[in-house]
Specification:
alpha/beta; Rossmann fold; 11-stranded mixed sheet; 8-stranded antiparallel sheet; 21 strands; Lipase_N; VLDL; hydrolase
Length: about 475
């Protein structure tokens, strides 16, 4: 989806419309509402069969609105076809599976969302106003509590949700922004887009933030209390060219639009995933930069530094935006298990190698994951390096691991004549999901890691190696041999 660089357009059009069940009596503040509010049902999640009409009390009884349960209000984004996208019934179905007694309302603003992008972007103000009027009416007419309202907005719909939240008479409970749109909003003032002030709690998933800020399909800046950037937020696994060709082979060109917006829409599927897999929520970790996260430096849960992604998020209101990161699989269930690995490389010669391919295998109490490939940007003698690895399977408690230094994919005379060996005494591992810290030792006292040679094995160290300078003990990085 290539979007033009648009300017924000101010629209003041007035539309009239009719919805099944409307009458001329719904005038006044409800007269200008064009958005439609469809109460979907668990039995038929993919069809609009009953509309809640602001100003018409009977419409709620007619649609069997549950006054004592929570309400999810789903706001779609920009559309080329003028039709609902395939994710809508999937989200409706997942919400009802998780909260069977709830009300799931789809805000239909398809006519406005089908315009040229800058026009549709400007319409988010009117859509937000429609939604706010609807929520205020529910509270005034039926004493329906604001704390029972959760808005979920995708792309442009996220900003419409934010505007709605800013206009209601009291703050609603929660807004979830699903990859809020970037063009025209990246540099917009807070009242024109989703912001932390729009609800008691605002959480945001950023899944397609590639390119320069004004060209990025998803907004890059943090705009919630918690902003989660899965896989760094720029691009999602499974959305590459190879996957696109596979889908075309299986399903033909009919799903081409899905391929173009694969990463953008992944935000929705990650949220659906969080609804369906209640017992195993994906964990995200607070980090200043995605580069630091890639080094495994941010797998801490102290002081609210980690949180569940999606529906089960812990509502932590921070004074400043909290950027969080995690890895995911390419398809549901998306959860993975994160590990920080720290290694100190010893050697008689001073050697520095860059962009080296390694394999790590993890063996646990319940499963194993072999040959996880990763690139170390640098390996240097007598330095400690930290990196992140993750597994798609739950291996249980880690018992042992192996490391292998792969050959370069190209032929090198240097490697042919010279063979470097790094010595490793210990490998330190921290498991993000369990917060356990472990130290692994070479069974031979010292492991010799050599390029292109067989893997070296590490097992849990006997005892508990602890750094104790004050007691006269050297730190582990300075110990030359194992006990």
């Amino acid at each position: 989806m290539h979007l033009p660089k648009p300017e924000f357009v101010h629209i003041h059009f007035h539309y009239s419309f009719s919805i099944p069940g409307t009458t001329p009596e719904t005038g006044g503040i409800f007269e200008g509402i064009e958005s439609k509010f469809s109460l979907r049902t668990p039995a038929i999640p993919d069809e609009d069969i009953c509309y809640l009409v602001p100003g018409q009390k009977d419409s709620l009884a007619h649609c069997s609105f549950n006054h004592t349960s929570k309400t999810f209000v789903v706001i779609h984004g920009w559309t080329v076809t003028g039709m609902y996208e395939s994710w809508v019934p999937k989200l409706v179905d997942a919400l009802y599976k998780r909260e069977p007694d709830s009300n799931v309302i789809i805000v239909d603003w398809l006519t406005r969302a089908q315009q040229h992008y800058p026009i549709s972007a400007a319409y988010t103000k009117l859509v937000g106003k429609d939604v706010a009027t609807f929520i205020d009416w529910m509270e005034e007419q039926f004493n329906y509590p604001f704390e029972n309202v959760h808005l979920l907005g995708y792309s442009l719909g996220a900003h419409a949700a934010g505007i709605a939240g800013s206009l209601t008479k009291k703050k609603i409970n929660r807004i979830t922004g699903l990859d809020p749109a970037g063009p025209t909003f990246e540099h917009a003032d807070a009242p024109l887009r989703l912001s932390p002030d729009d609800a008691e709690f605002v959480d945001v998933l950023h899944t397609y933030t590639r390119g320069s800020p004004d060209r990025s399909i998803g907004i890059q800046q943090p705009i919630g209390h918690i902003d989660i950037y899965p896989n760094g937020g720029g691009f999602q696994p499974g959305c590459n060219l190879g996957e696109a060709l596979r889908l075309i082979a299986e399903k033909g060109f009919g799903d081409m639009d899905q391929l173009v917006k694969c990463s953008h829409e992944r935000s929705i599927h990650l949220f659906i995933d969080s609804l369906l897999y209640e017992e195993k929520p994906s964990m995200a970790y607070r980090c200043q930069t995605k580069e630091a996260f890639e080094k495994g430096l941010c797998l801490s849960c102290r002081k609210n530094r980690c949180n569940n992604m999606g529906y089960q998020v812990h509502k932590v209101r921070t004074k400043r935006n909290s950027k969080m990161y995690l890895k995911t699989r390419s398809q549901a269930p998306y959860k993975v298990f994160h590990y920080q690995v720290k290694i100190h490389f010893f050697g008689k010669e001073t050697v520095t190698k860059t962009n080296q391919p390694l394999l790590i295998s993890l063996y646990g109490t319940t499963d194993e994951r072999e040959n996880i490939a990763f690139i170390l940007p640098e390996i240097s003698t007598n330095k400690t390096f930290s990196f992140l690895v993750y597994t798609e399977v739950d291996i249980g408690d880690l018992l042992r691991l192996s490391l292998q230094w792969e050959k370069d994919s190209f032929f090198s005379w240097t490697e042919w004549w010279t063979s470097f060996t790094f010595d490793i005494h210990r490998v330190r591992v921290k498991a993000g999901e369990t917060q356990k810290k472990m130290v692994f030792c070479s069974q031979d006292g010292v492991a010799h890691l050599q390029k292109g040679k067989e893997a070296v094995m590490f097992v849990k160290c006997l005892g508990n190696p602890v750094r104790r300078r004050k007691a006269g003990h050297k730190p582990i990085s300075e110990i030359k041999t194992d006990p």
